[in-house]
Amino acid sequence: MSKERQQEERSPEEAQQIPDVSEETAAGQETAPEEELSQKVAVQAKEIQELQDRHLRLAAEFDNYRKRVVRERAELVRTAQEGLLLELLPLLDNLERALAAARSSAASSRAEEAVIEGVDLTLRLFKGVLEKAGVKAIESVGQQFDPTVHHAVEQVQTNDHPESTVVEEVLRGYVLDQKVLRPALVKVSSVPAPSPQAETPSEGKGSE
């Protein structure tokens, strides 16, 4: 009897118990593409994450580079200004001395007063230019001596001021954007040493 005849003679119950090989093969073929697709998606997701991490690192490195360039440029400009302003300070000193000498004269004519006014105006304009550039005078007289901004040239013994107080400014100091451009030359107070007490006459008689 042929196989075709045997299959035709089987009962419906026997036919249901026999597995369909063609259906199992089709299910296996459908599962394989899904797993392959999932693997591809996972690989692509990993690559995307790596690209994002690399992008963040590059962005951070570029931001640090930009900030460093800005700092270096500002430092370069400040250094160039510092040299120029340092050369201008002696001119400011001479203007102040000339104005002080003119004002200290006992008598002054109309012409001398006009010169004083001209020098005073020039001095104020000059100071205004320096202030716009970031230059400020250091407060000295009456302040506690500060070695970071003051340079002591003399000690003055006095009881009128506390110890280490600036009592006189010899040459004005200046700062440029919180950096000392030139320290102030000052005189600093010091408390006099106590003098030995003179021997009284009564003490002299008693010793005899």
Structure commentary:
There is one protein chain. The protein is built from five helices and six strands; from the N terminus they run H-H-H-H-E-E-E-E-E-E-H. The chain is an alpha+beta fold. Helix 3 packs antiparallel against helix 4.
Strand order, sheet with most strands: 1-4-5
Biggest sheet: strands, sense, closure? 3 strands, antiparallel
Number of strands: 6
The number of distinct helices, counting runs of at least 4 residues, comes to 5
Class by SSE composition: alpha+beta
Architecture (CATH level 2) name of one domain? Roll
CATH class of one domain: Mainly Beta
The backbone outline, from C-alpha atoms, is elongated
CATH superfamily of one domain: Head domain of nucleotide exchange factor GrpE
The topology string of helices and strands comes to: HHHHEEEEEEH
Strand content: 5-15%
**CATH fold group of one domain:** Nucleotide Exchange Factor Grpe, Chain A, domain 2
